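Hi P.,

Sorry for the delay on this. The queue was packed all week, but I finally got your sequence through. Input first:
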Amino acid sequence: MTLHPRTMSVHASGTASTASTASSAQSAQEADSRVLDRSIGSFLRELRRLSEEQVERILVHQHSKGIRFGEAAVDLKLASSEDVLWALSQQFHYPYASNEGAQFDPELVTAIDPFGEQAEAFREIRSRLMMDVLAMDQPRRALTVVSPDVGDGKSFFAANMAIAFSQFGGRTLLVDADMRTPRQHGLFRVPNGVGLSSILAGRSDADVIHHVQDLPSLYVLPVGTVPPNPLELMQRSAFGLLMHELKTKFDHVIVDTPAAALGADARVLASKCGAALVIGRRGKTRMKPIQALLSALDGSGTRLAGVMLNDY
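Then the structure:
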């Protein structure tokens, strides 16, 4: 999938941080400065248990070719490209899960390849959101990701957007509110026995939010059992109360929603979360469904963050 961030027109945005978050951020910055003091060579030497002789060979090759230490180590087959990416992530305190070690779906490109082109596109979108609809001087909002139809790439976008926010810092929660075609539990390999539907039905409020392995700031609230009456559950006051509580406990909340073609769920969810980002699929989504969705959102009092096109 290729993202086209230039197609996004931002109308509003933002991320609010609390005093405790500021305090923890300061501590994190102090820890980060200590991590940054270590070189890539130091991490690779520790990871690959390189001897003094091997390190010297790498240094000689590095200087003779005028390349970086990591590139020289890969050239000499004393380290792999995955090793270098891991070392970079450690040096810059950036959560990273290798494709080999993580239990993630390949669609989670922001976690698997955090220095790639697609991850950079998500970071650009994150920056725009944090300067606008999710800005610190804006009311606290959760961001719903909505789309006209199934297959537009909405769940892919919501998942990677949540990862991007978690990599920025602060506790991030991805809520799977698509109680018609849920996917987030499969993408992140988290249990789905109980979840959002259980909370809204009053059956459970414990052990429903799962921490994502290898991404220390990311949490997922799955759908749980797919209910026969999703729209009715979302329209209950319990959902609004739940979102209010989640926004006080997490720095960033991203919400995946059902496609608009399946009912009014997305519009209802967006009105209770506060902000919406519309996703379409390049070459598939037509203007009429997009315009209909934008019109529905406009009448719900939702703050529109913009419109994005995916390219598969």
